[in-house]
Amino acid sequence: MQYITLCNGVELPMIGYGTFMIKDSALCEKCVTDALETGCRLFDTAASYENEAAIGRALRSSGLPRKEWSVTTKLWIQDAGYDDTLRAFEHSMDAVGLDYIDLYLIHQPFGDYYGAWRAMERLYHEGAVRAIGVSNFPPERLVDLCMNQEIKPMVNQIEIHPFFQQNTALRVMEDYGVIPQAWGPFSEGQCNIFRQKILTKIAEKHRKTTAQVILRWHLQRGIPTIPKTVHKERMLENMDVFDFELTAKEMESIAGMDIGHSEIIDHHCFCTARQLNSVKIHG
Ligand code: NAP
Predict the structure, then answer these.
(1) Phi and psi at residue 149, in whole multiples of 5°?
(2) CA 115 / ligand 1 centre spacing (Å)
(3) For 64-122, what is each residue's pLDDT tens digit?
(4) Contact, 183 vs 278, CB < 8 A?
(5) Is 100 a catalytic residue?
(6) Is 16 near ligand 1, meaning CB less than 6 Å away?
(7) For 133-179, what is each residue's pLDDT tens digit?
(8) Are 103 and 72 in contact (CB under 8 A)?
(9) Is 229 in the pocket of ligand 1 (CB under 6 A)?
């Protein structure tokens, strides 16, 4: 495994494990146990995924020392604001059953995220979290937060894959020392990504799968990522990407797949703000 170092010195694996949509507790526990067995040591969840407790159970019962694995969780919009964030954090901590969280993110750039950020700064100073960051923050909101708060987000977890390469956002993050982390590294499997000719040709040449080529492309761009799969053989496949290298020409041909926008979600659209603000995860 390769690691990336955040601005405060915390190291996170370049490849972790995503758990979006794995709501069934038994399945989720099994998946996390399988992922640990394949060598994965970073687990991404969120209050809104309804699986923090299952992930915590699987990690706690693994027998592995706490320092050997990391957990990310996220604050939902409904709990933005200073006091609500502190309350939501306690709730997440009770659910995962851990003494600290490795990375705590503001899930969406909506609601009172300035109040939320100040609460996160407090949690960071108190040692309840090893690192804090945001998710889905477009460049303008990220820069505004960076320029007006004591601590800059250490991570911005955003959608990145061959169809949506986010070059401008990445440049802005680099300017502010914010580490990008790719969600949806396979475009959630959409647009027939695993059968794209450019990728299948490269995969054939290296005797790898298209999924491995995509993850290798992320790695060579220096972007950590958190692919999700419920299949153990795919977990193994997704971890087995450190023994080959894409050529500059291959990287260039994948660069040509960028369509410059998301087919999954548009964070600039008012309808997204309306839809996400309507999602309530508790009464
Ligand atoms: P993704 O990882 O891009 O794609 C998951 C899809 O790819 C699933 O259908 C999975 O199928 C398939 N897959 C995985 N490995 C494969 C392989 N080796 N070969 C073929 N198919 C494979 O999508 P994602 O789950 O949306 O994103 C990853 C993680 O990012 C999430 O789980 C979540 O933790 C995080 N995320 C964060 C946000 C945010 O707003 N911050 C949004 C979305 C996701 P199977 O499961 O059937 O194998």
Answers:
(1) -125, 160
(2) 30
(3) 999 999 999 999 999 999 999 999 999 999 999 999 999 999 999 999 999 999 999 99
(4) no
(5) no
(6) no
(7) 999 999 999 999 999 999 999 999 999 999 999 999 999 999 999 99
(8) yes
(9) yes
The alpha carbon of 34 and the centre of ligand 1 are apart by a number of angstroms equal to 16
Q: How many CB atoms lie within 10 A of CB 100?
A: 15
Span 31-77, pLDDT tens digits: 999 999 999 999 999 999 999 999 999 999 999 999 999 999 999 99
Closest CA to 227 of 261, 262, 193: 193
Taking the CA of residue 22 as reference, the ligand 1 atom at the shortest distance is: 32
Ligand 1 centre from 100 Cα, in Å? 25
Out of 17, 49, 104, 113, which one is annotated catalytic?
Answer: 49
Distances (CA, A) of 273 to 66, 75, 117, 165, 269: 37, 16, 19, 22, 7
- Nearest CA owner, ligand 1 atom 10: 229
Residue whose CA lies nearest to ligand 1 atom number 36: 183
Q: Give me the count of residues in the chain.
A: 283
Which residues, 6 or more positions from 99, have their beta carbon under 8 angstroms from its beta carbon?
66
